[in-house]
Amino acid sequence: MEKAFTLIQVSEESKTDYASYFLKGEVNYWWESTRALDGEGHVSWTRFTELFLEKYFPDYLQSLLEVEFLELKQAEKSVSEYEAKFKELARLAPGYVRTKIQKASRFQQGLKPEVHSGVVALQLKTYHSVVQVALVIESDQKLAVKEKGDKKRKSESVTNKSDQEESSQKFQKRFGRNRNKRFKRQGFPQLWPNST
Predict the structure, then answer these.
(1) Which of 64, 102, 103, 129 lies deepest, with the highest CB count within 10 Å?
(2) Which residues of the chain have pLDDT under 50?
(3) Does one domain contain both 67 and 32?
(4) What is the pTM of this model?
């Protein structure tokens, strides 16, 4: 709402009226009854936001979200997924990310160890740079895993091919010898020479 107020230059006195105009359904009923119970003629924007947050974002919920933010880890999420969740919760726990350095440090703490170690070594000071480096490290690690898998498959393919050739040669030796003996007995010319 604050962005809209700035964009269309709503005066401080009109903010509550403007915001309450957009309330719908249950929220609108809540506001109508709250305004009637509050007893004041005009409710200031500051008072409106206090009442609204009290109702729809109570202290216990704020505390739960702060704890969730403090315990947030990347775990199995990608860096992008982790960053999205981090930004969502950081808005609700602004006391922990007041400065660029605090925000960068807090984000860094939740990264996977293999990404974290690369980021920490660079001693980055801004949130943006920490996120960018984490994305690069993650991308590099995925590429390394893919290359390792490709090499392993190629190695297995070469091993399987040589095993197949060896089996084929053994089969031909055994089968060829027996076949040549049978054909000789029956008067047919030899198909495979004795020496291989």
Answers:
(1) 103
(2) none
(3) no
(4) 0.60
Maximal CA-CA distance, the chain: 121
Residues 104 and 40 in one domain: no
Same domain? 42 vs 67 = no
Q: Computed from CA positions of residues 43, 44, 50, 52, in that sequence, does the dihedral angle turn out positive or negative?
A: positive
Tell me how far apart the alpha carbons of residues 160 and 100 are, in angstroms, rounded to a whole number. 55
Cβ atoms 90, 69 nearer than 8 A: yes
Give pLDDT tens digits for 23-47: 899 988 988 888 888 766 788 888 8
Give the whole-angstrom CA distance, residue 17 versus residue 23: 10
Distance CA 119, CA 163 (A): 45
Residue pair 130/119 in contact by the 8 Å Cβ criterion: yes
